[in-house]
Amino acid sequence: MDRIPILKMGRFLLVTIQVDMHDEMAMTLQEDLTSRIVTDRAQGVLIDISSLEIVDSFIGRMIGNIAGMARLLDAETVLVGMRPAVAITLVELGMSLAGVRTALNVDKGMLMLQNAQREKSA
Amino acid sequence: MDRIPILKMGRFLLVTIQVDMHDEMAMTLQEDLTSRIVTDRAQGVLIDISSLEIVDSFIGRMIGNIAGMARLLDAETVLVGMRPAVAITLVELGMSLAGVRTALNVDKGMLMLQNAQREKSA
């Protein structure tokens, strides 16, 4: 597999990261995702990392970058399914993922994005 | 990675198959999915195979089995994101996936499950 699939769910995009990513794959994901946000007129991005047992600083930085790019394209990013051990590692690495919202699971993340949309249009 | 994540989306479960599965992984997926259908009281299962460039008879049979098990647990299965080449291979292998519904993408598959639910409760 050379790229991570991006699934459209209504007005949002869902990315499930299941494999350890190397540099090239991460770059491809950033490019695919930003162009999909524009072509699908997505208003939010959900990134599920429930499969990842380890998140290193490379992946942490990539998630931060994706959230920053999505924000510039007027889409919110919610990171879902983080394991407790991953949260510990990220803080120990000094990565607080400022600007990235998190939720327990996809259901809750979706709700968060819907509420954010409602506030925006209110 | 030893298991494929199962994401809960409202009353449905979503499985995104991104990697080539070996026997053990397929067995784990069947076990995980059937128990999740019961514990989450799921009414439908979406299986996304948009990442798969090749589907062999092993994966084809597994998808058929999952749909059969889900049906016994009163949940419908919709297979989404099949590539044209995969459809050709499956028919050439003599696997028509009888009893498995298909949809172009997750959005359309979700709509199909929602309509099926509505008819059921009507």
Your description of this structure?
The structure is a homodimer of 122-residue chains. Chain A is α/β, with parallel strands linked by helices. The first copy, chain A, is 48% helix and 18% strand. Chain A contains four helices and five strands. At the A-B interface, strand 1 and helix 4 of A face strand 1 and helix 4 of B.
Secondary-structure topology with pairs:
The structure is a homodimer of 122-residue chains.
Chain A: E1 6-9, E2 12-16, H1 23-39, E3 44-48, H2 57-72, E4 76-80, H3 84-92, E5 101-103, H4 106-121
Parallel strand pairs in A: 2-3, 3-4, 4-5
Antiparallel strand pairs in A: 1-2
Helix pairs in contact in A: 1-2
Q: What are the salient characteristics of this protein?
A:
homodimer, 122 residues, five-stranded mixed sheet
Short description:
Helices cover 48% and strands 18% of the residues of chain A. Chain A is an alpha/beta fold. In chain A, strand 3 (44-48), helix 2 (57-72) and strand 4 (76-80) form a beta-alpha-beta unit.
Rough outline of chain A: globular
Q: H/E element string of chain A?
A: EEHEHEHEH
Strand order of the largest sheet of chain A: 1-2-3-4-5
Sheet with the most strands of chain A?
5 strands, mixed
Largest interface: A-B, 20 and 20 residues
Roughly how much helix do the residues of chain A carry, as a percent range? 40-55%
Secondary structure: number of strands of chain A: 5
Low-confidence stretches of chain A: none
What is the arithmetic mean of pLDDT of chain A? 91
- The quaternary organization reads as homodimer
